[in-house]
Every structure is written in structure tokens, then in C-alpha cells.
Amino acid sequence: MKFISIITLCAITSAHEITQLKVPLYADPRRPAVLSCHFQMDDQKLHSVKWYRDMDEIFRYNPSQKPPIRLFNVTGIMVQGGECQIDSCMVKVMPPPVATRAAYTCEVSTEGPKFQIARQTKHMTVVAMPDLDPIISGAPKVLKPGEQIFLNCSSDYSLPPSDINWYIDNELQKPEAWQRTELSAVQPGGLRKSWRVLRLRVPATVSGALRIRCESILLVEPPVVRDTATIITVHSQTQLSKYVSNNRGIKLTANTILLIAVTWTLIEISTFMSL
Ligand SMILES: *[C@@H]1O[C@H](CO)[C@@H](O)[C@H](O)[C@H]1NC(C)=O
Ligand SMILES: *[C@@H]1O[C@H](CO)[C@@H](O)[C@H](O)[C@H]1NC(C)=O
């Protein structure tokens, strides 16, 4: 079952070839992945088609044997099925519930006496993308200067679990020693939520709006970033009452102006009518 034919890697080019190797770049650990190998034999006779995961053989098609297809379970993967047509073979594998990257190789060899080999490899990474943006909890609408609160940001389930970054007004907040990213229990497929707490201390001199943003990052290539933001207004009680009364004052003035305008228009109209 091991990859013993390494020496034949340097085999002379043969007339037959692999025309297409379909291996998904990412595999979701919750569903099987389908891999297919398409080949062209020209005038050669097919001896066998083999699939390898890294160095382990997981599939063998040998049309002259009974049964022609044999599947091999290897550590870290479950081979669920395989099927061949005249010019292709597909294999269905259930990815392991861990974030791994493995090489999948298809090997097509011709009948003797030459036993020529065509081979192609592609990599597949087991990843479950988050479906949702992260969620910030514990954020009030208004805070007073000098107040301190704790915010919690939790990501959606993913594999591998996401990293969490906090920003205040676009400035990255370095985690305090106790503020590590924590992980939830494992879901089917190895998915986990992650969450991290931010201690927000409002300086006594600050007032205005704070933009709090939380980012969940899945460290795959390229990274998958999702984020969510919330605005917290900072002002003291005295500022608040000033703000409210100012607002009312403006409204009153506007109403007065409107009243004057309407009265003036009515006077104008009646003057015009009586002409
Ligand atoms: C692989 O393992 C699964 C689960 O243990 C089993 O259902 C399946 O029949 C095995 N396949 C082979 C080819 O041994
Ligand atoms: C933060 O949110 C997560 C997920 O909703 C939860 O499991 C966790 O207990 C929360 N942590 C704190 C300190 O509130």
C-alpha cells in the first residue's frame, strides 16, 4: 500500500496522460469531498488507476481483477466510495475533522511490458468557513467618562477556530494577559466557536463616539476575515442634560419661525385677495 514506485517518477514520458485532476482546494469536514481523475490512453492499454493520500494508497482500480475497485481506509480519512468510467475514476472521501492539508495523487499505469506511469498531485485543505459575522455582546449605547465595562466578542463556528481581534477607533487592542481567545466545545466536523473579552476603560477626559470593532479571522490562505462594529457614545450626565435642552430650544425656535412664516403668508394672501 505504500508509495513504492517512487523510482518510476523519473519514467520516460508516455503516450498516455492525465488530462484533468479535480481536487477541491478546500474540503468541508461535514460532507464528503469528491475527487476525480480524467485520463487519455491513446493506443495504450490501461493496467490500473490508483489514488494516494500523501504516501498511502486509498483506491485501486484494476479492470482485470475481481472486484476491479478496492478501497483502503487509512489513518485520518474514510474512503466512502469509488467509481470508474472508461476515461476517469472518482473517489469520495470523508475529510478528518481536523484542519489538515494533504496531497492527493492520481496514478494511471499502462499494461506491461512497459508499465508506464502518469501521475498528478493536488492539495486539499480541510476547512469550515464561518457563515456569520462575529457578535459583540455587553455593549451599552451610552457610557460616562471614567466608566469601565467588559465586552464579549464571539465568532461563528469554524475549523480551524477563528482568531479574534478588537479595535477601538481602528486601533488594534493588544490582549491583556488574562484575555486569551477561548474556545467552545467541539461540534460535529471539529468546528468550534471562539470568543475574547475586551476591558473597555473610558478615560475621564473623553467624550464623543467610540467605534468598537471586532474581527474574526480564519487563518487559511488567503485569510477569511469577518467583522462587526458598534458605536458607544461617551458623555457625562451634565453634558447629556445640556444636549437635550439645547435640542428642545432649537425645536422651539424652529416652531416659532414656522408660526411667524405661516402668519405672514396668510396676511399676504388676504391682502392679495382683497385687492
Ligand atoms: C472504512 O471505515 C468505515 C468506518 O469505520 C467503514 O464503514 C468502511 O466500510 C471502511 N471502508 C473500507 C474500505 O474498509
Ligand atoms: C462570551 O460569549 C461566549 C459565546 O456566546 C460565551 O460562551 C461566553 O461564556 C461569554 N463569555 C463571557 C465572559 O461572557
TrEMBL record:
Keyword Signal found: yes
Domain (Ig-like) ranges: 130-214
UniProt keyword annotations, A-Z: Signal
TM region(s), chain numbering: none
Gene3D superfamilies with a match to the protein in the record: Immunoglobulins (2.60.40.10)
Signal peptide as annotated in the record: 1-15
Domain of life, per lineage: Eukaryota
Protein name according to UniProt: Uncharacterized protein LOC113513705
Species assigned in the record: Galleria mellonella
